[in-house]
Specification:
It is built from ten helices and no strands. By secondary structure, it is an all-alpha fold.
Length: 213
């Protein structure tokens, strides 16, 4: 029987030594995002019967590679996890290998399915498809990385991203059946197919984010 609790010593280590590193990342990948991925990973792990400590740690490390180039951040995150000798206090070498593979496989644009159940858990947890969160994170990223763009240019980038990632033909994949993300994805796809409605939501969120800067 899998223990449904996270080891308190491990939790203290992660909260004091690992999670603060997310404060240096952009709004779409900051500490709020990390904590949401942890929370959803633990929910999925409990439902499936997976090791809670492993699911917790994978979620905590999954985006640390953003300290380097974004394009390979999933691979860098795996290296950071493997290189952290402090984890040997709680995990065997085989568990650390599994966790590294899970972190490496979490990226939404990955061309292959995660190699193990923990990769599926963190990949699913990382896909927070609650529509307004998806839309706001995309806008936040655009404002932070392309401040010179006009409102119309931001809208065009936003719509292109939605179509490429979340549409019926988008690259995002869901790995755990009947997760809350399934219904959220259908809602997003419906809005993508009615751009007039999506534009109204974009304008509201874009003005909120721009005024908050």
């Amino acid at each position: 029987m899998i223990d449904q609790r996270v080891n308190l010593d491990l939790m203290e280590f992660v909260e004091t030594q690992i999670l603060p590193r997310y404060n240096q990342f952009d709004k779409a990948h900051n500490l709020v995002h990390a904590n949401r991925v942890i929370s959803r990973s633990l929910e999925l792990a409990k439902r499936i019967g997976a090791d809670m400590n492993m699911a917790y740690t994978i979620a905590a490390y999954h985006d640390l590679g953003l300290e380097g180039p974004r394009a390979i951040h999933h691979l860098t995150s795996g290296k950071i996890l493997t290189a952290d000798a402090r984890l040997k206090r709680w995990f065997t070498p085989e568990q650390i290998k599994i966790m590294r593979e899970a972190v490496e496989d979490h990226r939404a644009s990955s061309s292959h399915a995660p190699r193990n159940i923990y990769g599926k858990i963190v990949a699913e947890a990382d896909r927070d498809l609650e529509p307004e969160i998806v839309f706001r994170r995309t806008i936040e990223y655009g404002l932070e990385h392309y401040p010179e763009k006009s409102t119309e240019e931001h809208w065009e980038r936003f719509l292109e991203h939605m179509q490429n990632k979340y549409s019926e033909h988008g690259y995002i994949k869901l790995w755990i059946p009947a997760s809350p993300n399934e219904q959220h994805q259908k809602t997003i796809q419906k809005l993508i197919n009615t751009p007039k409605d999506l534009r109204k939501i974009f304008d509201r969120l874009f003005n909120e984010e721009r005024n908050a800067e």
